[in-house]
Amino acid sequence: MKIYSKLIVLSLLTLSIACKQKSKENSMKENSLLKEWDGPYQGVPNFESMNLEDLEPAMDYAIEKHLSEIQDIANSTEPATFENTIEAMERAGKLVDRVYTYYGIWSSNLSSDKFREIQQKLSPKLSDYQSKIRQNEKLFERIKTVHDNSLEENLKPQEQRVVELVYKSFEMNGANLNDEDKARYAEINKELSKYYTDFSNNILHDEENYVTFLNEDQLSGLSDSFIKSAKKEAERQEKPGQYAIVNTRSSMDPFLTYSDERELREKVWRNYYSRGDNEDEYDNNELIKKILKLRDERVKLLGYDNYAQWRLQDRMAKNPENAMNLLMAVWPPAIARVEEEVEDMQEVANDENAEIEIEAWDYRYYAEKVRQEKYDLDSEEVKNYLVLDNLTDAIFYVAGRLFDFEFSEITDGSVPVFHENVKVFEVTKSTDGSHVGLFYLDPYARKGKRSGAWATTYRSYTSFDGETNVLASNNSNFVKAGEGEPVLVSWDDAETFFHEFGHALHFLSADVKYPTLNGGVRDYTEFQSQLLERWIYTDEVINSYLKHHETGEPMPKELIAKIKKASKFNQGFATTEFLASAIMDMKYHTTDPSEIDPKTFEKETLDDLGMPKELVMRHRSPHFGHVFSGEGYATGYYGYLWADVLTSDAAEAFAEAEGGFYDETLSNKLVEFLFAPRNAIDPAEAYRLFRGKDAEIDALMRDRGFPVPKEN
Description:
The chain has 28 helices and seven strands. It is an enzyme of class 3 (hydrolase).
């Protein structure tokens, strides 16, 4: 009788669990973020119906599903093979990818106080979820078996590459640790995820809340287009009749370049470079100390001397010494050039009887005066020819010439967008009309959108489970003009626009079988985008797309000549502010963190380097989001310079080619070896296939107008 009663209870319990599971499944079917991507173009994100209230339950459910898929792979009784282990892992987690697309939109494009509350809850959950996968012993044993067998088997090249990348990723993230160390490793990751979120949100707070409002009598030196945009921004911020200088680079930079109001320049400069450093609840200095200590503790568990040593082992640089050697090779000529630039600026200030010594908030202002005097080049005159809509047409033209891509705007509402300012374009092959994917363009600054410019994907190309199209996105922070007014941008911003489109082209041209191969090596993936910047200097772009916003006349040849002549101007400033940030990044991660107080460490390190007092790091430590809002660029900021060595060398190849920058043979090699493979080929080998040799620093030095090292 007792056995019978227990059976009844067990049956009822099983039935109850099944009912709860069924109820959960049904409720999840109504979740806006879990719904299948339907509609045209192989299905698109349901941006029009995404509901923030659905985010946390959707992510919880998606994580649960993925972990279940991983358990099935790990617990398989079949011998481990490439197909039932690596391919099965590549196929798993699609629901998490879908939800994470929406998460990324709210995080980067539509942040709010409510989202940030949810983000604080989800960050440790996401960290814990990733640790459960990477520290799954049974799963790693299967991966290791496949990896060891692959050394003896003849796998296809992309199969071998994905095996190596997956194995290395697990190894680097604690798969070989004992149980106690694994637990601590996972706990550290969870703590770090919270600190990264806090760091990022603190920056966003200071960007949103430190706005400089100007009156009518404080606009001297500013262009009409900038004034109109600033007035429009003030109206958006409910300050009609005033002019808003928001705390982002795209607003700060032109203000510091043109404003005649020195005290206001200093105020705007201090607001911008003090983000995360205001000794309040949003100050990031304590977070930096915590992040550095946890990173150091984590890599010590793995047996590494410092974080940089661990991080760079699978990068092109291989170790921090190689990265630092490159940085320090360029540092002396860069600061020497700064001295020359400051002398020129001080002379102009003296001639104007300004009675000042050049300070950091004066650098852009007087550099512009020197530019006009030395090269007779007025940046405001140049801006008149840099209309955002025309630049969009220009990048599409370049994509057509090099990649055979055609972009057609979709205006029938068939593709939902997450904000009314977002435009969507279908990408097809010009030669045969075949579909490639979609390109989303989100160009304007707004509250809740992180500063800067970036590229991302909502879906990447793969072919192992049938071909998928690409959903790529570019995001910028241009200040939106008034109704009927063109958006005019600086030459630097125009280059950045081309740069981010280079990332999009890298996504759109991918030809890889497995999702893992869509990743990248950090000091290599900036190369493709940096290279694309060079096409803005081509005659085809200048003559056809850089047209005056009022007359429609193309940019005069005289102005083009001035731009090209001045292209190496201010390289001391540009190179030194970057190098200072890259060197600080490396120093932070090769120094005992117990000895580091960020404010003191930053100052003492820069003093030891001989940092010119007239400028600052491009990203000061308390708002160095590349490094402290996550780990993508931590000890990786140097990668921009490493990639620029490749860029300078590749640009020389195009300059020497018979057809110049549109040489068909070289363009085909560009796509075949540098864009399409993504991470399916070792980057160094991919570059040699394109160029026939390794890149050398000499090209970089020539490119920046610095003396080439004598030993070379």
